[in-house]
Design a protein that fits this description.
alpha+beta
Amino acid sequence: MNSIWKRLIIRTTLPERKHYTDYALAKGYVEFMIMTRRHIKDFILITLGILSATFGFKGFLLTNHFIDGGATGISLLVSALTKIPLSVLIVSVNAPFVILGYHIMGRAFAIKTSLAITGLAICLATVTVPDITSDNLLVAVFGGFFLGAGIGLSVRGGAVIDGTEVLAIYLSRKFGTTIGDIIIMINVMIFSAAAYFLGIEVALYSMITYLAASKTLDFIVEGIDEYIGVTIISSRSEKMREMIIEKMGRGVTVYSGKSGYGKRGETKETDIIYTVITRLELNKLNTEIEKIEPTAFVVMNSVKDTKGGMIKKRPLKH
């Protein structure tokens, strides 16, 4: 291993020491390659998300003054009323959510989200997209589809281009309500304002846009709800437990079980790890699991809501 690679691996994946064994360097190299692949994948997903959202905005929604829910809807509504460029509003409206996300989700999430929102603003200001159709129903459905796809792809990449979910997570922890209830209340206020300022018809079409966007987002992130229950069966269960507690900042439940394998169904004693995370933390958890044991058996399922435990008390640590 040449000195350049060695210095890079030490700086990015290994703790500061004077001497490293060959095993430590090899392990560091594996972790470095995992992180590099993950960052490249995240970059591609976020870039595709930005392009999809830009197409939805400029090809469908802007010319018809249709809006969406959340921070995106606020930006579109203010742009329609004041003629302030949407690229400026996207950054200014989402800025408080990025700061809030830094305190709730961690620095890496805030940096990714800042770059994603900035990239979206630049595309909105510079990219030219022709009007695709003037049919209001098509504009509402397909504008919502491309916008929802953009938001969903960004979430898959570990960032958001609409900060409403960050606010909803914060308020749900503070007041003990569900994330879904918070999002509904925010959107009721936004669409009520749209009905008052833009007219009932525009507000109704905007609701169709929101429904199309939200369903597309759910599809892009594979139907993942606000919370994800994760079961991990691994030969390195203790390492998995430590990672979830120390790096993810989440509580775990450890079950004593038996794993069955082979043609004869031989069994072996093993510890089964179970934890609950939010969907914005899924990207981070997958990366950490791959670092410890890429072949670990992981089962994920949607959890409608949680009560008690550490899920609403401990922030994600990056």
